Task: inverse folding
């Protein structure tokens, strides 16, 4: 595996580090709302993307098909940032970990007889575990995980070049699970 691909995989697998956000109090101990740090990271990523797109700088995170569009790392980070700021922690944790760890599994299993069963199963089990650890009642955990897994794998499958799956695998399950949570509250 080439170095650039290793860098992309490491970044992809490490997206859940963003969930450390929840370890900080709302005022981050220094009187600054933690949401400001999320916004700061997002602004930095998109400034970097603007520079990259306007100068043609090569970055190891960028695949060939992303050369003339916003990179997957930026839109994936945007979806995670929206989750951190606007959605409940359990849903954001599921969507973030699901994208970070199940999306690569989808890539590895596509075209084999294990797709989509293996990614769906892994997403479901991961989601149930996260929901239980975050104190979601078991019936809701199973419901949210079932629907979240199906939605995440369904939106990951199409190859829509304008919308990266790193964004939709986080954002769409977040909206669906968030809406379900709201309706069942």
Result:
């Amino acid at each position: 595996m080439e170095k650039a691909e290793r860098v992309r995989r490491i970044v992809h697998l490490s997206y859940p580090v963003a969930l450390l956000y929840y370890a900080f109090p709302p005022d981050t101990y220094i009187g600054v709302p933690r949401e400001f740090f999320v916004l700061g990271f997002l602004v930095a990523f998109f400034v970097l993307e603007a520079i990259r797109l306007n100068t043609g700088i090569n970055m190891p995170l960028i695949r060939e098909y992303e050369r003339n569009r916003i990179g997957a790392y930026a839109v994936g980070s945007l979806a995670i940032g929206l989750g951190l700021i606007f959605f409940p922690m359990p849903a954001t944790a599921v969507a973030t970990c699901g994208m970070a760890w199940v999306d690569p599994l989808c890539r590895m299993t596509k075209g084999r007889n294990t797709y989509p069963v293996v990614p769906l199963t892994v997403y479901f089990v991961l989601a149930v575990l996260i929901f239980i650890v975050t104190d979601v009642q078991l019936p809701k955990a199973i419901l949210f995980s079932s629907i979240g897994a199906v939605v995440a794998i369904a939106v990951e499958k199409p190859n829509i070049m304008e919308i990266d799956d790193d964004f939709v695998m986080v954002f769409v399950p977040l909206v669906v699970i968030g809406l379900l949570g709201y309706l069942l509250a």
The chain has seven helices and no strands. The chain has one domain: 3-183. Residues 34-55 form the longest helix (22 residues). The helical segments are 3-13, 34-55, 72-86, 89-109, 117-133, 138-156, 165-183.
